[in-house]
Amino acid sequence: CYSAYLNTVNLSRPREFLPERWLDSGDASFESDRKEMFQLFSYGQRNCIGQNLAWLEMRLLLTKILWHWDLEILPESERWKTLKNYMTLGKGPLMVEVFPVERE
């Protein structure tokens, strides 16, 4: 995996930290990137040893966000509430407003 991520055939400028390469921003400099080669945690019997720890940390982070902030769907994202198919339908962005929670 490491060599695939550093190969210029798969990613343009692979040694640079460019998180915007993973966004759908329409940036032409990343159009030739082969993002399908990226396998989160690898796969199979001998996948990433830290996978369970990473999932636990993500759940903890999401829990802390939801504990400290209230999220409200904005009118332009009301369609999200009625979606039935989450796999094949292009949902578009989920616009939310964030409010700090007042706890006593």
UniProtKB/TrEMBL annotation:
The keyword Heme applies. Its cofactor is heme. One of its GO terms (molecular function) is iron ion binding. It comes from Calycina marina. Pfam families: p450. InterPro entries: Cyt_P450, Cyt_P450_CS, Cyt_P450_sf, Cytochrome_P450_monoxygenase. Keywords: Heme, Iron, Metal-binding, Monooxygenase, Oxidoreductase. This is Cytochrome P450 CYP4/CYP19/CYP26 subfamily. PROSITE patterns: CYTOCHROME_P450 (PS00086). Belongs to the cytochrome P450 family.
